[in-house]
Amino acid sequence: MAASIIPNERLDEIHFSNDEIARYSRHLIMPEVTLEGQKKLKAAGILCIGTGGLGSPIALYLAAAGVGRLGLVDPDVVDFSNLQRQILHGTEDVGRKKLNSARDRIKEINPNVQVDLYDTLFRSDNARQLVAGYDVVIDGTDNFPTRYLSNDVCVLAKKPNVYGSIFRFDGQCTVFAPHLGGPCYRCMFPEPPPPGMVPSCAEGGVLGVLPGIIGVMQAIEAIKLILGIGEPLIGRLVSFDALKMRFREFTIRRDPKCPVCGDHPTIHELIDYEQFCGLPQAEAENAKEMQVPTIEARELKAKLDRKEPFVLVDVREPYEYEICHIPGSRLIPLGELPARLSELDSADDIVLQCKSGARSARALHILQEAGFKKLSNLEGGIVAWAEQVDPSVPKY
Fold first, then answer.
1. What are the residues whose beta carbons fall under 8 Å from the beta carbon of 287, sequence distance 6 or more?
2. Which of 6, 174, 181, 219 is a Cys-bridge partner for 61, taking CB atoms 3.0 to 4.6 Å apart?
3. Of residues 184, 201, 261, 324, which has the active-site annotation?
4. Considering the entire predicted model, what is its pTM?
């Protein structure tokens, strides 16, 4: 059994009203919790990075459990595409700041919780200040720069970092806490994958209920750390396969050569994590690749109206094409493009198109290397087409 991360002297100032006693009564009668444990929950502060798929169940259940202070970090607004999994937000919240709808929902669950809102990206220049006042950090994001940043700042600040990730039907959960004897994120992933190698949920999709399972696991781990009960997932990673309904456990060992938590660390300050993950380099490479003209949605519509001869190639997947497509486009998924170059004529004027423009930019580079010259990329992809040309086209 682990020791609680909440110092006992902080509990002296914690008191409960009769309404709170009734609210938490099912906790209070548990010998593993009792009144003292509930005081620890009320005395605790947890910083949640993100109020999306993972952040929703995390925030809801921690608030219901009686965690005294929740900090929420998120600069985004609610979009229709969020509602399939981000249960903090409702249909009427579309267009609102996620922080505002999250605060309102949390207050409905438990008005006793202090909710602090941080309408900002979690960045190297504010991370130390943001985590300083909290006992636990929970990472509910889906991008590598933030994962490495949250890891490093928690290692340097000696705060537990409760990690979760989701993709399609698979999820993972663990606790990174070198100061408690475990490894950190860099021990598991010393280097980030090449930019674009691992698709995000927006590109690859995610089963709507999956973040509910992983987010609840993250909330459970945070509560265990606060109460000092059970066996936290320190040095253990739980992997969940929703299709097979199977949990598997893997051991993660601390790397003595880890640059941030190893025996001789070389990282003592936060770095540029966008650069570390290769994003500026990737953007520069994309810019270099895109020396040929791009084309805006309205320009493409004008070409179609003028009946100019050109070939519009959609490089998305067939199931995306089925959702929506531009009339007259030819479907050649990006992964199949190198093997299907013979279907295209280098003498033709070719416009490449995907959902947002990223995959079609990579397709353009493939065609460039194959000797194609008359190329352009639809800027913003079919999303821009829906916004600028044809509002009847659904956005996904």
1. none
2. 219
3. 201
4. 0.82
